[in-house]
Design goal:
It is built from 22 helices and eleven strands. It starts with 15 loop residues before the first helix and ends with a strand. The protein is of the alpha/beta class. The chain is elongated. A hairpin with a 4-residue loop joins strand 8 and strand 9.
Length: 621
C-alpha cells in the first residue's frame, strides 16, 4: 500500500484583503477533477498528530509534577486537550474515505490529488495564523468563488477541514514544546548533578556538547508516536535560555558558570543575551499561535454553517428566485432535500450544480400554477424533464403503479412458494396436502408481508413531505384551524375537550391560528336526543368564556345534525368523522349556503365568519 501524502502549506500572515486577492488567484489557477485521491486521505495523518499531541500532553503533566516550568504554549494544551480529543473523534467518525474521495480534487501541481476544499481550508488557516472568524470565512470563500464555484458538499463540510488544518498546526507547535521541555529537563539534571556538587568541568562539558548539536539540522531527541519514533526540528536556543535562567537563580555562586556559558555560546557566533531575546520572541509567537488554534476550534463548533451556506452558495441564491415564491418560506429539511436532488442530478449527469439550478429556474418561469414551483421538477418522473432540459440522458424512474404491482407480485410468489414447500413436507395423501396448503396460505402471507415491510424499511428511504417554515408565526395567507372532531354525548365531555383546546392554544400562541371543537352526533334511532341541547348549550358557553378570557375571537364550536342512513337503519352524522371534516372545509371555504348550514348543523359559530383558504388539521386526542 502506498504511503499517505501530507498537505503542507506555509507563508507569511496576510491581511484579510490580501488573503481575498490571493484566493482569487488560487481559484483562477486550480485545475479540477471529479474525485480526490485515496493517498491524500487526511485521517491517518490526523491520528498521528493526535498521538503526538497526547504524548506532549503526558510529558507536560509529568513535568508539572516534577516542578519543571511549563512552556507558555503548553499551558493551552494542558487546559484544552479534552477539546482536541473530542474534535479528533468527531472528525474520524464523520469523514470516511468514501466521503473524502467524492470531494472535487486538484488535478496537478503541488497539491495534485488533494481535495480542493482541504487545500482551501489549509490556506485560510495558515495565512490567518489559525484565526478563524465567521465574517472573514464568508469573505474568503466568496473571493475564491469569483473564479471557481464550490459545490454544496464542499461549503457544508469546510468546518471539518479547517479543524484538520488547525490540528496539524497544533502538532507543529507541540513539537517545539516537546524539545523545549526536554532541554529544560536536561538543564535540571546538569544543575542537580554538577553545579550543586561544584563540578565546574562537568558543566563546561555539558554546555559545550549542547552548543555543538545546535548546528545540526535535527535534534537527536525522538518523539514516540503510535508505532515508531520521529525526530523533530530543534528549538536550538531552549537549552541556553533555560540554563542562563537557572544559573542566575543561584546568584554569585554561579558567576563562573555563567562566564563559561557565555564563552562557549560566543564561539557559535552569537551571545547569551541574543539567544534569550530570540527564545522569548519564539515563545511569544508560539503562545499566540496556540491560543488562536484553540480559540478557533471552539469558534468553529459554534459557527452557524447553515447561514454561511445560504450567503455564499450559488445554488441557494438561484433557488430563492423560485417563481412561485415558495422555496424561501420552506423549512431547512425541505430546502436540503431540494439541494440534494440537484446534487444527485449533477452527479448522474456530470454537469455543474449551478447550471442545473439555472435550467430548473427557466422551466419554472415558463409555467403557471404548481408547475411554476421549482420543486415540481425535482422528484419522481418529473425529474426527467430536467434531464431533457440540460440535454443529459434521462433516468429510468419506476411509476408508483408499477412499484405496487411488483410489491404485490413478490408477496404473492413468496407466499405461494413457502406454503407449497410446507405442505409438501407433510407425509400424507394429495387431498390433505392441498387442504394444508390452503390453511397455511393465510399465516404465511402475514409472515411474508411483515418480512418485506421490515426489509423495505431498512433499504428504502422514506419520502420527505415538503413543509413551510412557520417558526416565526403563521401569516394571514396561511391561516390555520386546529380541529378536534369527536362524538359528544355529555356536558362533561364538552368541558374536558374545551380544556384540552385551551392547553393547545397556550402551547401555540401564534397569530392566525384558530381552534374548533367539531362535535358529531351519536348514532340513534331518534333524530334528536335529550342530551343534544345540553351539549350545544355547554359548547356555546365554553367558547364564549374562552374568547372573553383571552380577548380573541379564535375558539369555535360546531355540532352536526343526524341524518337517516338506510344501510345502518338509524340516524347518524353523514360519513361520520370524514364527513364532519369535509363539511367543515366547505363552511370555511364559504361554499355552504345558509339553508345547507341549517340542514347540517344545530350550531356552527364559524359560519358567521367569512374567511377562505383555511388549512384544516385533524388533531385527534
Amino acid at each position: 500500500m502506498s504511503e499517505k501524502r501530507i498537505i503542507s502549506t506555509s507563508g507569511a500572515i496576510l491581511t484579510a484583503r490580501e488573503i481575498e486577492e490571493y484566493l482569487e488567484k488560487v481559484g483562477a489557477m486550480h485545475n479540477l477533477v471529479q474525485k480526490s485521491s485515496k493517498e491524500t486521505y487526511p485521517i491517518p495523518r490526523l491520528q498521528e498528530n493526535f498521538y503526538l499531541i497526547k504524548e506532549v500532553n503526558d510529558l507536560l503533566n509529568d513535568h508539572v509534577k516534577q516542578g519543571i516550568p511549563i512552556h507558555p504554549a503548553g499551558e493551552w494544551i494542558l487546559d484544552n486537550f479534552y477539546i482536541i480529543e473530542e474534535i479528533v473523534k468527531s472528525i474520524k467518525q464523520e469523514l470516511t474515505l468514501k466521503k473524502y474521495t467524492n470531494f472535487v480534487g486538484i488535478k496537478n501541481g503541488f497539491y495534485d490529488g488533494f481535495a480542493r476544499i482541504y487545500v482551501l481550508a489549509s490556506e485560510i488557516v495558515n495565512y490567518t495564523d489559525n484565526k478563524i472568524e465567521t465574517e472573514g470565512l464568508e469573505k474568503y470563500l466568496a473571493a475564491y468563488q469569483t473564479k471557481k464555484t464550490l459545490n454544496m458538499d464542499e461549503i457544508w463540510n469546510i468546518g471539518i477541514f479547517l479543524q484538520i488544518a488547525i490540528i496539524e498546526n497544533i502538532r507543529q507547535i507541540c513539537e517545539s514544546i516537546y524539545v523545549s521541555q526536554i532541554q529544560k529537563y536536561k538543564v535540571e539534571q546538569i544543575v542537580e548533578k554538577s553545579i550543586e556538587n561544584g563540578n565546574e568541568n562537568g558543566v563546561k562539558r555539558q554546555v559545550k556538547y549542547h552548543s555543538l548539536i545546535f548546528n545540526l539540522p535535527f535534534c537527536p531527541v525522538p518523539i514516540r508516536t503510535n508505532r515508531n519514533f520521529r525526530r523533530i526540528s530543534s528549538m536550538k536556543y531552549s537549552f541556553i535560555e533555560y540554563m542562563s535562567y537557572k544559573l542566575k537563580k543561584y546568584g554569585k555562586k554561579t558567576e563562573k558558570y555563567l562566564e563559561i556559558l557565555e564563552e562557549i555560546v560566543e564561539k557559535t557566533g552569537t551571545s547569551v543575551s541574543e539567544v534569550i531575546r530570540r527564545e522569548h520572541f519564539d515563545i511569544a509567537v508560539k503562545r499566540v499561535s496556540i491560543g488562536n488554534c484553540i480559540t478557533s476550534i471552539k469558534k468553529i463548533q459554534r459557527i452557524n454553517f447553515l447561514e454561511i451556506f445560504k450567503k455564499i452558495n450559488g445554488v441557494e441564491e438561484i433557488l430563492k428566485q423560485d417563481p412561485a415564491k415558495v422555496y424561501d418560506k420552506m423549512d431547512y429539511k425541505t430546502k436540503d432535500a431540494y439541494r440534494q436532488a440537484i446534487k444527485e442530478i449533477s452527479k448522474n449527469s456530470k454537469i455543474s450544480e449551478i447550471y442545473i439550478a439555472k435550467k430548473l429556474l427557466e422551466l419554472a418561469e415558463n409555467e403557471n400554477g404548481k408547475k411554476s414551483h421549482i420543486g415540481y421538477y425535482l422528484f419522481g418522473k418529473n425529474r426527467n424533464i430536467v434531464y431533457e432540459k440540460i440535454e443529459a440522458k434521462t433516468q429510468k424512474i419506476m411509476s408508483e403503479e408499477k412499484k405496487a404491482k411488483y410489491y404485490i407480485c413478490m408477496i404473492a410468489v413468496f407466499t405461494i412458494l413457502i406454503s407449497l414447500l410446507l405442505s409438501l413436507c407433510i407425509n400424507t395423501n394429495i387431498v390433505f396436502k392441498i387442504f394444508a396448503f390452503l390453511i397455511i396460505l393465510i399465516p404465511t402471507s402475514e409472515f411474508v408481508i411483515q418480512t418485506f415491510q421490515y426489509l423495505l424499511s431498512k433499504f428504502v428511504k422514506p419520502k420527505l413531505i415538503p413543509k413551510i417554515d412557520f417558526t416565526d408565526g403563521i401569516d394571514e395567507k396561511n391561516a390555520t384551524m386546529v380541529v378536534i372532531p369527536t362524538i359528544l354525548k355529555s356536558r362533561q365531555k364538552v368541558k374536558e375537550l374545551m380544556k384540552k383546546m385551551e392547553v393547545f392554544y397556550l402551547a401555540n400562541k401564534s397569530e392566525n391560528l384558530y381552534f374548533c371543537l367539531l362535535g358529531d352526533c351519536s348514532e340513534s334511532v331518534k333524530k334528536e336526543e335529550d342530551f343534544d341541547k345540553e351539549v350545544i348549550d355547554e359548547g356555546l358557553t365554553q367558547v364564549q368564556n374562552l374568547n372573553k378570557k383571552y380577548k380573541k375571537d379564535i375558539f369555535y364550536f360546531a355540532y352536526r345534525k343526524r341524518k337517516w342512513n338506510e344501510k345502518q337503519g338509524s340516524y347518524l352524522g353523514w360519513e361520520r368523522k370524514r364527513g364532519a371534516l369535509t363539511e367543515l372545509v366547505e363552511v370555511l371555504l364559504g361554499n355552504m349556503s345558509s339553508k345547507q348550514l341549517q340542514e347540517n348543523y344545530y350550531v356552527n359559530t364559524w359560519a358567521k365568519k367569512n374567511r377562505s383558504q383555511m388549512h384544516v388539521f385533524n388533531n385527534v386526542r
